[in-house]
């Protein structure tokens, strides 16, 4: 049976609707750990979902979370680079966004947060360390998968994961 | 084995071969401090792994609403993409500063723009304008393509492309690659500008007279920026050549590409007009 967009489901390949329904939380977790705040995490997930929709036809059955984590990470890195080139002060274009501010009560409850100082330490990590640690420990990617995503050798990933963790350990201790 | 030996994390992540794993086992067996560190790293890994952030229903709704809006078919622009007759005046310094940032991003990036204040509103407006253009419309590229250019730097294959304009023609952007490989990004917008103010804010550059119109120009490393104050409109040009060379190219633009007029109508004339005043 074709989905809403008229596509015939391919065995082993989830539909976009299934990804949005079943894996939004995973994408959001990765995005939040990378970005460090709710608003940016939402922006990253929104763009990532659009890329998922456009790229689903090229997805080959395999590590779905690995694929999604790569997309989320790429969106995050794209946005980070864009902001570096174009420092800007965001003006809300959606009235609803003006009202976000602090998380609503249900949103606060929905977050099983890390200690604030640990989340802050993650965000303070150099980008390459942060990406490596989040992809390894939050997204559960192997070093080989992280290496492919980052375009660096596995040995570099190993070093980045370890150095990133040591910095976080210093914060916790 | 020292604490900074990355085999410790790889051991934890089961990413070691048998020989390296055996070496770590041996070190751990004889070094209680190392065991302690490994335990701390394991706790950290476990903490990160078991702390998913579940988006609330409200956050989920916001995410899906934006995604669904973005997927809706875009309505054709009610007015021509470029309609100079209906242009309106826009802020001056902020607009030009935003142009510099935007164009510099397209051309390859310019450092030192962090001091430009209050440009977010115009940048957001540019992007919003680009996003509502009908995909594939003449004289426009879609938002994704625009971002791709911003991400990858100069990659326009054609000699001249008008990359986007907003719905009422207030903002017009063209990228031009000359036969000698010089890449220009030209941004035109309505409104006069305060060149002295730009110089003061940017802390660099100089103002020169060019046939009755003033131009502020500066060298930002590999990128050169020129802002020309026209009569009711302003151009910002960013390129990888000296300002004089960029202007020479612009002056010669219509002769180089006779199809320009067909492609971008009177915009080409408007873009090149100030460069011909002194000739």
How far apart are the first and last residues' alpha carbons of chain B, in Å?
74 Å
SS summary, helix count of chain B: 12
In quaternary terms, these chains amount to heterodimer
How are the strands ordered across the major sheet of chain B?
Answer: 1-2-3-7-6-5-4
Average pLDDT of chain B, rounded to a whole number, is 59
User: pLDDT below 50 for ≥5 consecutive residues: which ranges of chain B?
Assistant: 74-169, 254-279
Radius of gyration of chain A: 17 Å
Measured by residues with Cβ under 8 Å of the partner chain's Cβ, the largest interface is:
A-B, 60 and 55 residues
Q: Total helix count of chain A?
A: 10
Model description:
The complex is a heterodimer of chains A (173) and B (279). Chain A is an all-alpha fold and 173 residues long. Chain A has 2 domains: 110 residues, Rna Polymerase Sigma Factor, Chain: A (Orthogonal Bundle); 60 residues, Winged helix-like DNA-binding domain superfamily/Winged helix DNA-binding domain (Arc Repressor Mutant, subunit A). Chain A has 10 helices and no strands. About 16% of the residues of chain A have low confidence. Chain B has 279 residues and is α+β, with helices and mostly antiparallel strands. Chain B is built from 12 helices and 7 strands. In chain B, α2 packs across α3. Chain B starts with 6 loop residues before the first helix and ends with a helix. Chain B folds into 2 domains: 43 residues, no CATH class; 193 residues, no CATH class. Chain B has a 7-stranded antiparallel beta sheet, sandwiched between helices. At the A-B interface, α2, α3, α4, α6 and α8 of A face α1, α3, α4, α5 and α6 of B.
